[in-house]
């Protein structure tokens, strides 16, 4: 709505877009503060900024991809990240020369793939806060240890392996098999 | 436990592995039926089969991948699927000759990539129940329409686009940006 120049939105309009009821929209937003103006609705730009702030999206998140196989390459060229200020600023692998050709072919500009041994130095230089791990499962824990040591704060782990991190460190797993389990359950009961 | 030959497990052992309390394990399982034997615990093989049945995992799920770019290729070679009876039995693209070289290089055996126009015929022949959509976002809806027409029952959608399907059809989205939003939220509040 902001992109298309709309200035004001009512809770009824928001509700209709989100397929919930207007009272729920007002209640949910009120939970975080006073965003609405009685008789007017919400100012689109203000509401957008407030929601971004609540969600931690009012800043650029600088990320590294570790493990440049097919999945790592897919993430390097995943355009949707940029819409939300997720910026991949480094790519690591255990064997950079082997993979550099394949990745640069896919992307507009060549991506410099660095050896994983440089992660600590590069994480500091480039202010990396999130690591996307797309290594084989057997390597995921040792890579996660390097990520923690490098002072990176969060991991999105795509490798199908349970990894452990120190308390306070943020880890989210993206296990395609678990997501399929959920789909299979829904199909079995539909 | 079944693979390592263990016959019986107590709710305390299960609870410890899952990091919950034993009463919760007993309560959750009791919700689905009478699995435990008083003073014994659970028979591992029986419990495993019962849980698989509840989750819809006591059968092979036959899947197609549609859109064989980097992400599609990653899914074609994702070994973890096989552990849970998820079998990719077909791969489709709009331009099979363009991609076939890249995929076969990655996999042990060459995968035959078919033109998307053949989906209806192949879905019936190969009993495909789930489609993994990894096309560009602009193509996701038209591909989803073909999937529905082909009699496939569920979609796991990786393309960052909202697609709509008829009521009763099962659709799950895997939007990497949304998952990152969740990580960013946790990092902002940690």
Word description of this protein:
Two copies of one chain form a homodimer. With 190 residues, chain A is of the alpha/beta class. Chain A has helices spanning 11-18, 22-30, 44-55, 70-76, 80-83, 96-106, 119-125, 137-149, 176-188, and strands spanning 8-9, 42-43, 61-66, 86-93, 113-115, 130-133, 154-157, 170-173. Chain A has a six-stranded parallel beta sheet with strand order 5-4-3-6-7-8, with helices on both faces. In chain A, α1 (11-18) packs across α2. Chain A is globular, with a radius of gyration of 21 Å. Chains A and B meet through α4, α5 and α9 of A and α4, α5 and α9 of B.
What are the key terms here?
6-stranded parallel sheet; globular; 44% helix; 190 residues; two-stranded antiparallel sheet; homodimer; 8 strands; 17% strand; alpha/beta; 9 helices
**Integer average pLDDT of chain A:** 89
- Percent in helix of chain A: 40-55%
Largest interface: A-B, 44 and 45 residues
Coarse shape of chain A:
globular
Strand order of the largest sheet of chain A: 5-4-3-6-7-8
How do the strands and helices of this protein lay out in sequence?
The structure is a homodimer of 190-residue chains.
Chain A (H helix, E strand, L loop, with lengths): L7 E2 L1 H8 L3 H9 L11 E2 H12 L5 E6 L3 H7 L3 H4 L2 E8 L2 H11 L6 E3 L3 H7 L4 E4 L3 H13 L4 E4 L12 E4 L2 H13 L2
Parallel strand pairs in A: 3-4, 3-6, 4-5, 6-7, 7-8
Antiparallel strand pairs in A: 1-2
Task: Put the structure in a nutshell.
Chain A is 44% helix and 17% strand.
């Amino acid at each position: 709505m902001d992109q298309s120049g709309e200035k004001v939105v009512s809770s009824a309009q928001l509700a209709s877009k989100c397929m919930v009821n207007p009272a729920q929209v007002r209640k949910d937003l009120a939970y975080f503060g006073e965003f609405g103006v009685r008789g007017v609705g919400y100012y689109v730009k203000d509401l957008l900024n407030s929601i971004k702030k609540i969600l931690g999206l009012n800043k650029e998140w600088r990320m590294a991809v570790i493990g440049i196989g097919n999945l790592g390459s897919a993430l390097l060229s995943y355009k949707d990240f940029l819409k939300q200020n997720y910026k991949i600023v480094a790519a690591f692998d255990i064997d950079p020369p082997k993979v550099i050709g394949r990745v640069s072919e896919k992307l507009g500009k060549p991506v410099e793939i660095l050896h994983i041994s440089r992660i600590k130095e590069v994480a500091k230089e480039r202010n990396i806060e999130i690591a996307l791990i797309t290594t084989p499962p057997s390597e995921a824990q040792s890579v996660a240890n390097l990520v923690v040591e490098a002072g990176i704060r969060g991991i999105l782990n795509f490798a199908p392996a349970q990894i452990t991190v120190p308390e306070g460190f943020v880890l989210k797993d993206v296990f395609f098999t678990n997501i399929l389990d959920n789909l299979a359950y829904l199909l079995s009961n539909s």
